[in-house]
Design goal:
Blueprint lengths: L7 H12 L3 E6 L7 E13 L2 E11 L7 E5 L5 E2 L6 E5 L6 E2 L5 E5 L1 H10 L2 E2 L4 E2 L6 H5 L6 E7 L12 E10 L3 E4 L11 E9 L2 E10 L6 E5 H9 L28 E4 L1
Parallel strand pairs: 2-10
Antiparallel strand pairs: 1-2, 1-4, 2-3, 3-8, 3-17, 4-6, 5-9, 7-8, 11-12, 11-14, 12-13, 13-16, 14-15, 15-16
């Protein structure tokens, strides 16, 4: 591994400060398989004098989403007030995802999880990877053939307990014309689908935090679906496309219906 840059500590601090509440671990319910990490992403639709119009998604690797029922692990800092249970079982899980072309990436509009929280009487308190942090084509083009330090924010599987604590995995990525961007070496189980970051140097010992993309399953070096291509695929989705089905639990007959929530929102 090449020597980490002087601003390694600053990159770690920024990731933890800005994105520590952006990730969710999931797996096939009641089975020790299809472990993965998903994360919240805000796609910028437009900016006006009234504020920014964004669409919010969960983003992950496509293959692990192909399960009928999944178990999502919650952390207390993601909920207000904190839930008594730390697991959410979602039926119809596979149907809630849209697969982006041939990128190996799946996205879910946030409606289902927000509706679930509203019925249960709590709110999500998450961070999101923003459009300004997500890599552009220019950011990807600057990656050369030499490995650069990279940071994956995911939820490995504890070999003994099966716990899914969040971890920042430090490694390297490299871009080649033949293979695109790849993580150098293998990743811990449970980390596919997670966001991968770098600190892009700006000169004079300064940098910007860039989320390069999504870690995908792979043998040996893991491919990374880069955000320049993800952003293009998201823009091809119809803004009037239906939101994901609300399958995160079914309300009892006496339970009031959750308020309707559009899959886009305006932020000032």
């Amino acid at each position: 591994m090449s020597e980490l840059p002087d601003f390694h500590s600053a990159i770690v601090y920024l990731i933890n400060a800005d994105a520590s509440r952006a990730t969710l671990p999931f797996q096939r319910v009641h089975r020790a398989e299809q472990h993965a990490t998903a994360f919240w992403f805000n796609e910028l639709v437009e900016e006006t004098t009234e504020g920014a119009l964004v669409r919010q998604y969960l983003v992950t690797a496509g293959e692990p989403t192909r399960v009928e029922t999944a178990e999502i692990t919650l952390r207390p800092e993601l909920c207000s007030p904190a839930m008594s249970a730390d697991k959410v079982a979602m039926t119809g899980f596979a149907e809630g995802w849209t697969h982006l072309d041939d990128l190996g990436v799946a996205v879910m509009p946030d409606t289902a999880l927000y509706a679930y929280a509203a019925r249960k009487g709590w709110s999500w308190t998450t961070d999101e990877i923003t459009d300004g942090v997500a890599a552009t084509a220019e950011d990807i083009a600057r990656l050369g053939g030499m490995p650069v330090p990279a940071y994956l924010l995911g939820h490995p599987v504890d070999a003994e307990s099966g716990a899914r604590e969040q971890a920042l995995v430090v490694g390297e990525i490299v871009r080649t014309d033949e293979d695109g961007v790849r993580w150098v070496g293998t990743l811990p189980q449970g980390c596919v689908g997670a966001p991968v970051f770098i600190g892009a140097g700006l000169g004079e010992n300064s940098f910007k935090l860039v989320c390069v993309g999504v870690a995908l399953p792979g043998d040996g070096h893991h491919p990374i679906a880069t955000f320049d291509r993800i952003r293009t695929a998201l823009r091809a989705l119809s803004p009037d496309a239906p939101a994901a089905p609300d399958t995160a639990g079914t309300p009892a007959p006496s339970e009031p219906a959750a308020p309707k929530r559009r899959w886009w929102q305006r932020r000032g």
